[in-house]
Amino acid sequence: MDDDLQPLLLSWYAQNKRNLPWRLTNDPYTIWLSEVILQQTRVDQGLTYFLRFLQQWPNLASLAAAQEHEVLKMWQGLGYYSRARNMLQAAKQIVALHHGVFPQTVETLRQLKGVGPYTAAAIASIAFGQRVAVVDGNVERFLSRFYGLNSPIDRGVGKRQIEAFAQDVVKTGHPATLNQAMMEFGALQCVPRNPRCNDCPLVGKCVAFQQDAVKQLPVKTKKKTPKNRYFNYIVMTHQKTEGLDFVVRKRETDDIWRGMFEFPLIETDGEVGLDQLSQAEPFLELTGGKTFVVKGQPVQIRHILTHQNIHAWFYLLIFDNLSFVEEKNNVFLMNQNRADDYPLPRLILKYLLFLENQN
């Protein structure tokens, strides 16, 4: 490690760190919650969820007693819903296997559902003062530029080098502060695009800056091409004066949005029309051979996920009544005025908002 790195980094952190609630405590539950939320979420968006979540479930025991649909509803809009499901399962694990006491080492933390190397290191370091480096995307970017690392940081040699550099930083001093300083430096100073090199206290030591390679680093392997998926939602409702009822299903397959609710779905290999859909066996099973009226044109919404592009069409079918629909096998009638009671993917919320604006 460069002898000047630690003091310069700590000085910068003392002057520039954001006042965030999870930095005011060493409670492992609070730190765990913040780290899970911020894994795939910006701080400005995640802070609201963090505060709401903590108000609803202020400690580990209260979360462990929650129902999955309650946690998913609270998580609604954050995406990556497996994070919420895993948190609930991990909380139950801690209560059942550790008598409600948070594990303190990386090894025992890694045994919890959904807790990977990064989250385990963050909890062990920040909550319990373990001398272990916390390596997130911000740390990777900062260290790869500072040391001029030309190997891909998400594979083999490059990944191990970044981990070694980060571990070297925390080998002396206060590991919680040093880890948070590195993460904050990458988040605020050494940002992905247009990093603030002009007022960077480390610029004199930064290999990437000296070699005019800041824009080229970090090096990563090529991302996978997103998969295109084609969702045809059959929105079944009926004539009613006080809030429409919609047929919804709970997703139980090991796929996106598991445990959340959506309209009956027919997934196809490409774009199809209602004429073709209506001849398919799944469609006939859904509608039970009952007469319906198609209201308006199908609504098309494109929904972008990290590795998937969802091309969705919503077909609104009006029935005289929905008495033929049996509320079983994860099928429910959701009243329009009670939609807030259900954890719904953002894609479904977009369509409901469209319907609301049409009335």
What would your notes on this structure say?
By secondary structure, this protein is an alpha+beta fold. The protein is elongated and about 75 Å long. Strand 6 and strand 7 (308-319) form a beta hairpin. It is 41% helix and 14% strand. The chain contains 15 helices and eight strands.
List descriptors.
single chain, alpha+beta, three-stranded antiparallel beta sheet, 15 helices, 41% helix, 14% strand, elongated
Secondary structure: elements and pairs:
Blueprint: H1 5-16, H2 28-38, H3 43-56, H4 60-64, H5 68-75, H6 82-98, H7 106-109, H8 117-127, H9 137-146, H10 156-169, H11 175-188, H12 207-210, E1 227-238, E2 245-250, E3 261-262, E4 265-268, H13 274-277, H14 281-287, E5 292-294, E6 299-304, E7 308-319, E8 331-335, H15 346-358
Parallel strand pairs: 1-7
Antiparallel strand pairs: 1-4, 2-3, 2-8, 5-7, 6-7
Helix pairs in contact: 1-11, 2-3, 2-8, 8-11, 9-10, 9-11
Taking all residues together, what is the mean pLDDT? 93
What series of H and E elements makes up the topology?
HHHHHHHHHHHHEEEEHHEEEEH
Assign an overall shape: elongated
Number of strands: 8
- Radius of gyration over all CA atoms, rounded: 25 Å
Taking the sheet with the most strands, its summary is: 5 strands, mixed
Low-confidence runs: none
User: In percent, how much strand structure appears in the residues?
Assistant: 5-15%
Please report the number of helical segments.
15
From the N-terminal CA to the C-terminal CA, the straight-line distance is 63 Å
Q: State the helicity in percent bands.
A: 40-55%
Class based on secondary structure composition and strand pairing? alpha+beta
